[in-house]
Write a structure and sequence with these properties.
The chain is an alpha+beta fold. The chain has helices at about 5-15, 35-45, 50-60, 100-105, 165-175, 185-195, and strands spanning about 25-35, 70-80, 85-90, 115-125, 130, 145-150, 155-160, 195-205, 205, 215.
């Protein structure tokens, strides 16, 4: 399997409460590859004003072959890791039929240049889908996620942790809570009783098959 979208579809099918979800809230990517290809993609996204369609035009590809819609590509960063530059960027409102980055790597100009893709995808509204293909934790080491929701229904804080102990510690430290809040149940009760917040909900981050995608 070359790309992770079908893995996510299978996950949704096997988990009934995720069936109604047709889009994902966001996906975070780390892309490895030949330095010229990484630099080219970074500059295209950086100058795309946040929109995937603009980024594709900057790459010189035919955007008529893409359903860009409201898809955003934003917050690109070049980070040096092990002596090589790797690209980080985020995608919002990707489509259920497949993510644009999958189609982009079919382009001849990128053939073999982009070698590895690591992702973290999150949809917490109804699907409660939290997944990564980074099983070694190279870029996405966290395996638990928790969100604090305010009285207006908005997420006011998000916490990512490698284990439950770290998650409890981070939440308690952020809200300056006493040690009596020493488990998830007591923390959930705190936010339910609070006048400023509605509730706290958390999920495991699913590690899907294939620790990376290799286009070579």
């Amino acid at each position: 399997m070359r790309f992770f979208f079908s893995e996510i579809c299978n996950y949704i099918i096997n988990n009934p409460k995720t069936k109604i979800i047709m889009t994902f809230a966001f996906v975070k990517y780390w892309v490895e590859g030949e330095q010229e290809a990484i630099q080219t993609l970074f500059e295209a996204i950086k100058n795309g004003e946040g929109w995937a369609e603009n980024s594709l035009k900057n790459l010189g590809v035919n955007t008529e072959n893409y359903e860009t819609g409201r898809v955003e590509w934003c917050n690109p960063e070049l980070i040096e890791k092990d002596g090589q530059k790797v690209l980080y960027f985020e995608e919002y409102f990707p489509y259920e039929r497949g993510l644009l980055i999958d189609q982009l790597f079919e382009e001849e100009k990128f053939a073999g240049g982009l070698t590895h893709l690591y992702y973290y995808v999150e949809e917490g509204a109804n699907a409660e889908l939290f997944a990564t293909n980074d099983d070694e934790g190279k870029y996405f080491p966290y395996r638990l996620v928790a969100h604090v929701v305010d009285n207006d229904g908005f997420c006011s804080d998000s916490f990512y942790a490698k284990n439950e102990e770290q998650l409890i510690h981070d939440i308690r430290e952020k809200y300056q809570l006493s040690e009596e809040y020493n488990d998830i149940d007591s923390l959930q009760q705190y936010f339910e009783d609070s006048e400023d917040y509605d509730y706290l909900y958390g999920n495991d981050i699913q590690v899907l098959a294939h620790p990376f995608v290799n286009w070579k």
